[in-house]
Design brief:
Blueprint: H1 13-23, E1 25-27, H2 38-43, E2 49-51, E3 72-74, E4 95-97, E5 118-120, E6 141-143, E7 164-166, E8 187-189, H3 202-205, E9 211-213, H4 221-225, H5 230-246
Parallel strand pairs: 1-2, 2-3, 3-4, 4-5, 5-6, 6-7, 7-8, 8-9
Pfam family, one: LRR_14
Domain Disease resistance R13L4/SHOC-2-like LRR: 86-166
Keywords: Leucine-rich repeat, Repeat
Length: 262
């Protein structure tokens, strides 16, 4: 650990720390930090949101477990290679942003973050996800795009609140059948992988699914259209498109994206 590299333009260290304690929000993005700041750990229970985005931090200390009331941890675009196991003690954590680091695996203790709603760890070096991810029953968003994943764990089907999965730009070859259990799932993005087929019941059982993107995979549109539940999925997808048009949402020049290359 270490001290802050420089004072942000918010006054003296004392006034800055006082402000952090009163708001619970610590903003240190783009602060040229090379180490995790001691002052943050010293604040312990006062921390609610910690933003260390875009620094050069390479290590997350075990003492981070003292921040037991922290709800949002934003530590994207650093040089982190591993996370401490006792990260799992952050029982209040709802948002964890780790994009753009050098992480190759996540600790099993990740599954202890029972209140976690958003986990984003794109642009890392992940080769697998821990089976304990299935314990994240409140997880709504999972973004693991731009990694080295060959598969998604079967336990993912236990993340009952999951609405969006982004896993583009990996080397995923097959999907777990348990994805069919995700009745809240609205969007599944798997562009630029090696997926040859999707679970038989996915379109039929995932009754909330509105977006399934499989561009640049070895799966054909013909196979996709023959799947049970395809027509119902199409109806949901078109309703979403129509709703976006009615709301004057800016659409791609391509119009309605069918989700699979022809």
């Amino acid at each position: 650990m270490g001290c802050c590299a420089s004072n942000p333009a918010g006054g003296s260290k004392a006034s800055r720390t006082k402000r952090w304690r009163s708001t619970g929000i610590i903003g240190l993005r783009d602060s040229k930090l090379k180490t995790f700041p001691d002052v943050v750990i010293d604040m312990e229970r006062a921390v609610r949101t910690l933003d260390l985005t875009h620094n050069k931090i390479s290590d997350v200390p075990a003492e981070i477990s003292k921040l037991v009331n922290m709800q949002r941890l934003l530590i994207a675009d650093n040089l982190i290679e591993r996370l401490p196991g006792n990260l799992g003690k952050l029982q209040s954590l709802k948002v964890l942003m780790l994009d753009g680091n050098r992480i190759s695996c996540l600790p099993d203790e990740l599954g202890q973050l029972i209140r976690l709603e958003q986990l984003s760890i794109s642009r890392n070096m992940l080769i697998y996800l821990p089976d304990t991810i299935g314990s994240l029953r409140n997880l709504v968003l999972l973004n693991v795009s731009n990694n080295r994943l060959k598969s998604l764990p079967e336990s993912l089907g236990s993340c009952a609140s999951l609405e969006e999965v982004q896993a583009n730009d990996n080397v995923v070859e097959e999907l777990p059948a348990s994805l069919c259990n995700l009745i809240q799932l609205k969007s599944l993005c798997l562009d630029d992988n090696q997926v040859k087929q999707i679970p038989d019941g996915l379109l039929k059982d995932c009754k909330s699914l509105q977006n399934l993107s499989l561009h640049n995979n070895p799966i054909s549109m013909d196979e996709f259209q023959l799947m049970e539940g395809y027509e119902e999925f199409e109806e949901r997808r078109k309703k979403k498109f129509d709703k976006q048009i009615d709301s004057n949402v800016m659409m791609s020049s391509k119009g309605l994206d069918i989700g699979v290359d022809k």
